[in-house]
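Dear colleague,

Thank you for sharing your sequence with our group. We've completed the structure prediction you requested, and as agreed, I am returning the results in plain text so they can be pasted directly into your records. Please verify that the sequence below matches your submission; if there's any discrepancy, let me know and we will rerun it promptly.
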Amino acid sequence: MEVLRSMTAREVLNLIDWLKSKNFTNDDIVDCIESVEGKKKADKEGKKEKED
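Please find the predicted structure tokens below.
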């Protein structure tokens, strides 16, 4: 979460407001933030290892 750690809480809230203004759903916003954090990629890699 390197990028988000460098953002202030106000900047994150501004990002959320901007995403909402672009008609992002709450789930889309969470996915966006998780993607920036790298969580989704790590989750997918973990699942792939378990399948192998």
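Summary note from our side: The helical segments are 2-5, 9-21, 26-37, 39-51.

Kind regards,
the structure core
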